[in-house]
Amino acid sequence: MRGSYVILSLVLLVLGFLISYSYQLTKERNQNRTISAEQWDKEYETRSLLINNEEINRDLQKELYAKQEEVKQIEESLKDQKQVYYNLVEDVEKYRMYVGDLPVVGKGVQVTLEDASYIPEGDNVNNYIVHESHIFNVINELYISGADAISINGQRLSSDSYIYCNGPVVTVDGNQFPAPFVISAIGDPNVLLSALNIAGGIIDQLAYDHIVVTVEKNEEIKMDPLLQEQKTQS
């Protein structure tokens, strides 16, 4: 009988141990399930933040592209404005050069007009001397061909210059000059020479009028600016 109690005690002890172990195991599993749920919630939250940040980044990227396009358009506009301002400054410099406000140095050509060395007996002398019309024709041809500045016997011309002939003397802006008349022009010498020497052009016309013409290139022509009183006189 006493042996039966011992066996029953052992059975109850083992059963208690099994129940305790089962309870502990179930508790640990429940705890693991709870932790997994928390991790899942955290992972979901992290993924949501990443998705939200990706959307924000896409929006910012679109905004960046739009701003870059605006900057590009502004740069193009400034580039165009810069070119416009550059052209305006260049034009102003040219106009100041034309009116004689600025000194000028450059390559060009020199055209010398002289009266005929031989006048047939009985012919009119006026048909063999240089007149203002001859000088005008040369000057106009030079300006048309791109001359930046022109002078006659060192007298620089302006937009208000006047030239007239009085016998063998030509008056330029109030200053009288006898022949020969040296017309200096600053510009591309090749272009100016080609324009003067064109067949049937100004050189041929001057030769027909018995005017002696000499045309040559000049590597450096200097012209001083016109004084204010010179402009007032002209």
Automatic annotation (TrEMBL):
<dbReference type="Pfam" id="PF05949">
    <property type="entry name" value="DUF881"/>
</dbReference>
<dbReference type="InterPro" id="IPR010273">
    <property type="entry name" value="DUF881"/>
</dbReference>
<protein>
    <recommendedName>
        <fullName>DUF881 domain-containing protein</fullName>
    </recommendedName>
</protein>
<comment type="similarity">
    <text>Belongs to the UPF0749 family.</text>
</comment>
